[in-house]
Amino acid sequence: MAVAVSALALAASACGKTSTESNTPEETKGGDKGGSSSYKGKGIGLAYDIGGQGDQSFNDAAYAGYEKAKAEFKIGGVDVEPSDGESDADKVQRLTALAKQGYNPVIGVGFVYAKAVGEVSKKFPKTTFAVIDDTTVKEPNVAGLAFSEEQGSYLAGVAAAKATKTKTVGFIGGVEIPLIKKFEAGFVQGVQDTDKSVKVKTQYLTQPPNFDGFSKPDLGREAAKGQLDAGADVIYHAAGLAGQGSIEAVAAEKKWAIGVDSDQYNQKALDKYKAYILTSMTKDVGGAVYSLTKSVIEGKPLSGEQRFDLKAGGVGLSDSNPAFKEMTDVVDAVAKAKKAIEDGTITVKSTP
Amino acid sequence: MKKFDKERVLLALAGPAIALVVAVALTSIVLLISGKSPFEPYSIMFEQATFSDIQVLIVNQATMYYLAAVAVAVGFRMNLFNIGVDGQYRLAAMTTALVGAHVALPSFLQVPMLILVAMLTGAFWAGIAGILKTTRGVSEVVSTIMLNAIATSLIAWLTQAENFGVLSGNNTTTGLMSESGWIPGIELAGGKIYGLIVLAVIVGVAYWLVLGRTRFGFDLRATGASESAAAASGVNAKRMVLTAMLISGALAGIAGLPLLLGHSHTYDLTFPAGLGFTAIGIALLGRNHPVGIVFASLLWAWLDKASQELDYHGYDKEIAVIMQGLIVLAVVISYEAVRVWGLKRQQQRVGEELAAAARKSKNSEEVAAR
């Protein structure tokens, strides 16, 4: 009873204005910030996935592209983080707020935004929306920015199989979700195509809905220790911030680690261990954010599936570690595999 | 009798009121230390509560909090700590979504069937802990935490594409539920209120009735207060433990339904986790009382939803999380303090009454002696 009363009391007063009506902004206001004369938006609206800014990985990559685009096109922007345990309704609210305030494009970082973008994009046909890692939303004003992680991971597998001395390599996945399984599938195929005698140890840190596997370095450290004990001497991680723990453990044993998403050899937070970061599978989320923003500024917004694959430079294998460049046989094998994937002689599986 | 009740209401309200004041004061200190205005975040959040769309979000979230918190409260009343509400809720939501996707009965059968599936799943999962406790003496705290972890793995396995899962891009779902199992929302200016808010109302009323007005409720509270005393008066304590766990689990099972049947229509990776843990704090704050939990749920949901706006004003929305944490801490301490204080007052009063009675009888004795 009491629930009804108080709920209805709240609901009854709900005839007031909505939060977004009160701070509706106006395209004119955004105009003075816009560098381009035709662009009338207020800037980029970036909505992060769980973990948010500072994860040294996925979200930070998006942030880098957002900063670059903001500076280059002299536009504004706002980046917002989600809360733990929120539902789609909260994501809809967040995206609606961004679109209503005049941000354009509005970007959902992570496939978890797919449903919410699908709902909100219908209400704002003039705003360009984008979801990273998703291609399921079919609206004219929505771009799905997807990456071929399996192709980059294949190259990581080739490098690992060539570099291992113990004939054992490891894969550490953050959370066991289809997206991370793409990394595993590519890596395992790359290893096996290169050297059938090399064994791959696979481990996932957590199961959904527990996403600690992307954020807790101690989990990554323990998993890496286990794989090192089992004889692995090259370990590839796809575990975001948790992967830092893996890199740390691998460096302590003076074995090889393979980084992910960003070129981790160049990351300040990992400076101490960089000599042991053989290479990184780069996923250019920042570049995708940048290209999308550019397309909006130029008045020709991207729409539909935008695939960032090996050919387009959306994924790849970094070579910033001088030690990696010295291993000419590894570099050659990777270059050969890259060419084969690009011209279609090798098709990489996206499921293990 | 009536006078005594007034005292009890006063004491009951003093606990949460003190906790809230302390939490607000401490949060303001945190804000001051970090060099920010200790008042503006509150005014922003209060303003948010006047917007219709935020109100809808708050009510919808509070509906789910309420159901889960009552599930926790049923256990608390029995002196059982069901930490497994979260696992029971997730497993039940997933099972219901699966059944809903594969069965398509007419609406008037489908909806009750889905609610029943959710209740049975939740009750089954909590029942395992109940049976372990009654037959083997395993602490329900330990077993329900473990069952949470097992539920996680079980859900992950069942929702794999090779089992019952349906992939939607990079998301793992259970497939879309048949439309006969969807429950339309109550359309308002600011959005849709979950239709199953009705379920929360029914549960609230039933909880109040059963606990306060039936023999079973009395036995439950009696066993919770003192198991041996209840046993002496003929209550089968073991059966009460099992029954309480089953009810708690069944309620946990329906906590996810407002969202599942009202909006998402599938169980996927974005389905909110952690509801059962939040509910523990809410049940504590609401003093396990059907009305108290309403206010606690609304307060919690308000902190969750109104704080989002802080990000656009240069504050961190985590202020609300700090506040929620402080509330839980303060609640535990203030309840104990208020309880001790109330006990003291009661003892003093009883002492005074006895002394007065003694004086009176002494006087009358003197009169009689004269």
Outline the fold blueprint.
The complex is a heterodimer of chains A (about 350) and B (about 375).
Chain A: H1 2-12, H2 19-22, H3 27-31, E1 44-47, H4 58-73, E2 77-80, H5 88-100, E3 106-108, H6 114-123, E4 129-132, E5 142-147, H7 149-163, E6 168-175, H8 178-194, E7 199-206, H9 217-229, E8 234-238, H10 243-252, E9 256-261, E10 277-283, H11 285-297, E11 304-308, E12 315-317, H12 322-326, H13 328-342
Parallel strand pairs in A: 1-2, 1-3, 3-4, 4-5, 5-11, 6-7, 6-8, 8-9, 9-10
Antiparallel strand pairs in A: 10-12
Helix pairs in contact in A: 4-11, 5-6, 7-8, 7-13, 9-10
Chain B: H1 2-33, H2 40-48, H3 52-77, H4 85-102, H5 107-136, H6 140-158, E1 166-168, E2 171-173, E3 186-188, E4 191-193, H7 197-213, H8 215-225, H9 227-232, H10 237-254, H11 257-264, H12 275-285, H13 290-306, H14 318-369
Antiparallel strand pairs in B: 1-2, 3-4
Q: Could you estimate the helical fraction of the residues of chain A in percent?
A: 40-55%
Structural class of chain A: alpha/beta
Instruction: Give me the side-by-side strand order of the main sheet of chain A.
Output: 2-1-3-4-5-11
Superfamily (CATH H level) name of the largest domain in chain A: Response regulator
Shape of chain A: globular
Largest interface: A-B, 48 and 65 residues
- What is the name of the CATH class of the largest domain in chain B? Mainly Alpha
Quote the beta fraction of chain B: under 5%
Please provide the ordered H/E string of secondary-structure elements of chain B: HHHHHHEEEEHHHHHHHH
The secondary-structure element order of chain A is: HHHEHEHEHEEHEHEHEHEEHEEHH
Q: Structural class of the helix and strand makeup of chain B?
A: mainly alpha
Low-confidence stretches of chain A: 1-15, 24-36
Number of domains of chain B: 2
Total DSSP E strands of chain A: 12
| Rg of chain B, nearest Å | 24 Å
Question: Are there runs of chain B of 5+ residues with pLDDT below 50, and where?
Answer: none
